[in-house]
# Entry
Amino acid sequence: MVQPFDRYYPTHCEKQKFSVLIWRKYLRIVHLSDLHIFCPDAISFQKIMNKRLLGLANWYLKRKRQVNYDIFPVLLETLKNLAPEVICITGDLTHLGMKKEFQKSESLLNDMHSIAPVKLVPGNHDLYIKDSAVDMEKILGRFFSITDTEKSQIKKAGENNLFPQIDVVENIALIGLSSSYPCSLLKATGRLGKKQLRKLSVALDELSDKKSLKIVLIHHPSVSGLVKKRKELLDNKALEALRISKGIELFLFGHSHRRFICVDDDKAPKSLHLCAPSITSIKKAAEKRAGFYVLDIMAKKKPFEIKVQDLILSERGNRFVLNGQFSLNLQPKPPFSAC
# Structure
């Protein structure tokens, strides 16, 4: 059971600026999601005679009027000013999972990587069809981990052979999970699978022994009821069971294209869930307008102290401003010891 973080959002003020304080005793992480890069010149009859045809119709009937890629230079300049240690992207870099879209995404990620290491996980649009999985790994696979740049080959599309991808930075574990797979025509569900969940369980035990702060990056929401059934994470109950039994302090995700923040209640170990909106969205409603999170984490003492800033695209669309901020202490779950 989770409760929305009601005290989080102040009244939005167009002129309000976000702080750019670099607390060197903190590790600064930026979290953004759902770029939905689209390349119309990559479309051919042969390439869209599958699920992509539905995504193409969705683009021209709806999404085309809701995104603006001119935001990327503004985003890059803001990231330079923020000087994060890590940039986390939780999926849907592309719209149709086409090779040219991945190549265009790579160019943007290289620009981000010149600012800070980039860690990403796949989204459902990235793995639209089986071929998409292979193209994504070949072109963007080096961004799955910030410490292991060796590329592995996907043996079977949709089997999540490369995940979890775990990077430990200053006692903070960034755990990348793949919840995406090429699903049926009208669905956008997520699935971790038994193999990935088993590997995650073992990793959580090891990280608990080291008393690390555990941060999960996943595309589909870790909170039930945030999206429709046809878009939800199918094995969310299994992930929730691991959260309770082994401890996961923070979840970063996207997929719903809306801002959402909640903290689990006192019946289980405290966890923070952050859902980022689409970074290219130009919707007027603050809940769905482009933005991202800045997390300053102090990992040198327990409990971990976390400061979260929510940055939102200004109404003029020329800069990011502060939409809200809060601080929270998270206590890592101690390792299990039998009596």
